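From the methods appendix. Each design record in this collection lists the tokenized structure first, followed by the designed amino acid sequence. Records were kept in a plain field format so they could be parsed without special tools. The example shown here is representative of the layout used throughout.

RECORD:
FOLD TOKENS (363 positions):
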């Protein structure tokens, strides 16, 4: 128990601040849509999903001299399309296709750099791996913390803040709060780690579906497309996707990433929790002909379980009540990580000195 307590304390002191940063940024991002509705024109507009309006917006946006690579369409909570160009260049457009705001650096938009910090730690793929490892470390803290809390469970009290600014009171509050919110922390940390670490996700899904099967099921079709037509009939493209999956919400329109690629249209069927869906339709960019489709509801079980990670992690299901629940998880992680660092670095070797004095006195 003493060794476990020492490991828990030292590792928490070393990466507690990182977990606090992830908790704080994640909490803020839960309410990104509300922030945009309050600060960006047309962000509070009602969502439009009829074929004619979507096609007119796509034609207007893709006809521009600086054509974006993809359009993430407006949702029920956010009435803006988001356009992605090369690098950090991006923009918001209203549902007619008119550009509302554009930027060429992530630092221009607070919600963009917050996401970059939360998901990539400002360091691309390397930062993503570090974030996933931090999530696994956080799971270790929850497990060891519950083990250390169990002998003191009869002294459990629910407090939002330590009753006094003394180390003993802070440690007691830390254990009780961590035990109380442990299920939410496990959910947040596990889903975050699986999204950042593919090997960890594969391990968790392997009992349901072999990783090789999941990879094959998500592979794009092996069909070569022609050159993108200047006057492509976007109404026919979007209408064909909607006809193939009646009732589905059109979510993303992507142009070919390289010569010979296909136009991709992602849709979200009503049974899908993922906000942009995993249902897909591919079209030949030369003539808009539908060449392949993929129904997300027919994916292997492991893939369908993996598709729940993001909506559960980012509270994209369950409405405001679940967003508030995950807000509690994020605030708790922020508080636990911050207080751990404060108490540890305030006296990192104090417990070791106390043990040494106790042994000396006993001798």
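DESIGN:
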């Amino acid at each position: 128990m003493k060794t476990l307590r020492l490991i828990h304390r030292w590792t928490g002191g070393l990466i507690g601040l990182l977990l606090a940063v992830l908790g704080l940024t994640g909490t803020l991002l839960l309410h990104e849509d509300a922030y945009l509705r309050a600060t960006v024109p047309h962000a509070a507009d009602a969502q439009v999903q009829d074929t004619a309006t979507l096609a007119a917006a796509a034609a207007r946006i893709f006809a521009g001299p600086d054509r974006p690579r993809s359009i993430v369409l407006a949702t029920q909570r956010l009435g803006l399309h988001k356009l992605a160009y090369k690098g950090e260049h991006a923009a918001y457009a209203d549902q007619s296709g008119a550009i509302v705001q554009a930027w060429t650096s992530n630092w221009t938009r607070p919600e963009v750099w917050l996401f970059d910090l939360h998901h990539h730690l400002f360091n691309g793929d390397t930062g993503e791996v570090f974030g996933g490892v931090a999530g696994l470390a956080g799971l270790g803290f929850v497990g060891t913390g519950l083990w250390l809390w169990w002998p003191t469970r009869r002294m459990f009290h629910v407090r939002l803040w330590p009753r006094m600014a003394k180390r003993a009171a802070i440690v007691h509050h830390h254990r009780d709060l961590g035990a109380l919110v442990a299920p939410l922390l496990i959910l947040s940390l596990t889903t975050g780690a699986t999204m950042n670490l593919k090997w960890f996700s594969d391990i968790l899904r392997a009992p349901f579906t072999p990783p090789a099967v999941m990879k094959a099921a998500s592979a794009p079709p092996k069909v070569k497309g022609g050159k993108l037509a200047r006057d492509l009939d976007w109404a026919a493209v979007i209408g064909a996707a909607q006809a193939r999956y009646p009732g589905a919400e059109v979510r993303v329109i992507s142009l070919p990433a390289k010569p010979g690629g296909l136009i991709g249209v992602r849709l979200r069927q009503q049974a899908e929790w993922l906000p942009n869906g995993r249902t897909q339709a591919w079209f030949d960019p030369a003539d808009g002909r539908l060449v392949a489709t993929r129904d997300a509801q027919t994916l292997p079980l492991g893939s369908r379980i993996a598709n729940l990670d993001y909506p559960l992690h980012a509270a994209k299901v369950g409405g405001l009540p679940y967003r508030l629940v995950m807000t509690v998880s994020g605030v708790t992680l922020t508080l636990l990580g911050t207080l751990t660092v404060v108490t540890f670095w305030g006296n990192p070797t104090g417990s070791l000195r106390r043990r040494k004095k106790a042994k000396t006195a006993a001798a």
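APPENDIX NOTE: The two ends are 22 Å apart (CA to CA).
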